[in-house]
Amino acid sequence: MDRAPAARRPPEEPPRDRRGSVRPWQAVLGVLLVVVALTAGWPLIDGALGDRERVAAGTALVLGPDDEIAVLRVTGHGWTLSKSSSDPDMAYALSRDGVDLAARYVPLTGAGDPGALWGGLRKVQSVADSGSRLGAGRRLTGARGAIGRSGSLTGGGRVGSATVWLPPGLGYAVEIIVLARPGAAPGAVADATAMARGLTFPQGAP
What we know:
By secondary structure, this protein is an alpha+beta fold.
């Protein structure tokens, strides 16, 4: 797959508190922009620009710079990538049969915690989009030592999930949002969920 041109740049480094650490709600601020875009702006942008690019099943989408990366592998056929809403290596926006998936790399300073990030995500998204609701979430354990949290998400008349992943011992996280419109294809929902749960970190613990 040809990589999409960099339409958006990663957010500036979030402010630190006096101890030099990034507050959880600040760390997820860039991620929250993905939620807002999914619930409001992306369908309008895509319809106006017609910038959809088909992505083959099995394609590996790399998130992160240098060696600190995560790999999102496309599951199922029929997904398209929005070039205007994607930033290669930092964020990807995929759609199929009424389902939108957004994945974003989030740089942190120091070790992160899924629970703290989840609480920060809820706090900030409630301010940015009062109509959306983020569930309590449950702890996840991934391959090669990755830990995370996933829970239900609703907004803009759509339902889905939010998933936060943290690789072991590294200073970044990956947030994946899945939202489905009414009448969305169940198979697309299942494939999007599998993609969110199947994120891998090649540099993780053996």
